[in-house]
Amino acid sequence: xxxxxxxxxxxxxxxxxxxxxxxxxxxxxxxxxxxxxxxxxxxxxxxxxxxxxxxxxxxxxxxxxxxxxxxxxxxxxxxxxxxxxxxxxxxxxxxxxxxxxxxxxxxxxxxxxxx
Length: 115
Prior knowledge:
Largest sheet: none
Radius of gyration: 49 Å
Strand content: under 5%
Shape: rod-shaped
Number of strands: 0
Order of helices and strands: H
Oligomer: single chain
Helix content: over 70%
């Protein structure tokens, strides 16, 4: 009777130990799964931040490119305006010289007719 009782007790202890081991294994699995989920979430967040950063850098580069182009266009426009103004001044000076020449010739012609 004692050995039977001892055998039942041992069997019960083994069952309790097995249940505890099974419970511990399940808890370990839950913890491992939770850790993996956290690691994945962190990696996803880092990837998202990297994409946001790259997008911002791309936008900044595009803005800089557009600003530079606008500045170059403005400079070309200024240069063209200076060129046109200079040409207009030269044309005006040529007209003045031509008018003066024609006046002088008219005066000379008039003097020849009088003479």
